[in-house]
Amino acid sequence: MRFPARLQPTQQKQPGQELIGLRGCALITGAAGLIVAVPVADLYLPPDVHLAHVLVVPIAFVAAFAGARLAAVTALMAVLALVAAAAERHALTSENVLMQLGSLLLLSVALVLVSRRRERDRIEAAGLRRVSEATQRVVLRPLPRRSGAVSIASAYRAAEACSRVGGDLYAVARTSDSTRLLIGDVRGKGLGSIGDTELVLGAFRAAAHRQSPLPELVASLEGSVRWGLAEPRAFDAEPEADVGERFVTAAVVEIPDGEPWVHVVNCGHLPPLLLHDGAVTALEVAEPAPPLGLGGLAASSYTVSTFRFAPGDRLLLYTDGVTEARDSRGTFYPLLERAEAWVDFRPDSLVQAMTDDLLAHVAAPLGDDMAVIALERDRLHHSAEAPRIEGVPGQLRTSRTGML
Questions:
Q1: For the structural domain made of 141-399, what CATH number should be given?
Q2: In the chain, where the domains are located
Q3: What percentage of residues in the chain have a pLDDT greater than 70?
């Protein structure tokens, strides 16, 4: 079947294929030059000086950087160079030359086999990355850059090197007049927690777009998560773990389009950070709920806390993979202090600055999954004025019904 030029399927080079381009040509040319130099140099060296051991060097370099096939070709060239050097000295059948030839053959075979194994490992790792990327696109969908009156930026890093998704999660959903966000952390990390991650995200996406108040949404999440976590699964990474030890910390946030505040229900998660007027404030809710999977509470037991969130304000949601990251001396990452330098950053710049600073603080692979969302209130769809309510600084009021 022929395709139009624009629709021709792309053929991606597999990791095991030989290098091409300037770097590959330079490597092969250098290896061939070194191999040819050995019999030439033997013409001018004393009879008791031999350079056969040098022939291993180009084989090793080609095996390491150009693949098993070119390594085998290089090994054949090296063997021929050794035979030519011995023939020049009329010592082809001497014990010394035969030992050198046997050693070179054994080393060449070993290097080619090791190179072939590395190629297979690279192909398998590339396959795992492709599977992980596909899993991320299905399970942990990229967040939109804008939702309603809110600009959004996010970052995600899984603790496992070959994984793109783990135990941290986030999602965005729209209702007719608001944006709802979920950020959470499944007990565990890496690939073993993907099943629970998918469970929570699926429950949120199924219920969040409805017009039900936040307490009812969180109660629905609690029921779905508790039911899902109780089901036995043969693929659990920790099959011995008790059902009561499996849970999800989560914060559910709702931002009305035309009202300058944000509603928060916190289920054992870290408090969001509000960046407002040059200051950073942790939005501690009045009555935090238990983590999802441990609650079993009625909808009326979930308390909504409301905070002012005016145009130009920014909100930072994150998981404990950020705050519990340690440097070489065991010092936790001081997010609240560092965030004071980013109060005027737009969401994209804020997420980039925090991620770069976190990785510089750790100076090593992260020990836990990490997720972060930065939000900015751009505008109000219609004028609304926040009521004056005394109480916790930054907090407007709390509600058990979600009808404010």
A1: 3.60.40.10
A2: 15-131, 141-399
A3: 75
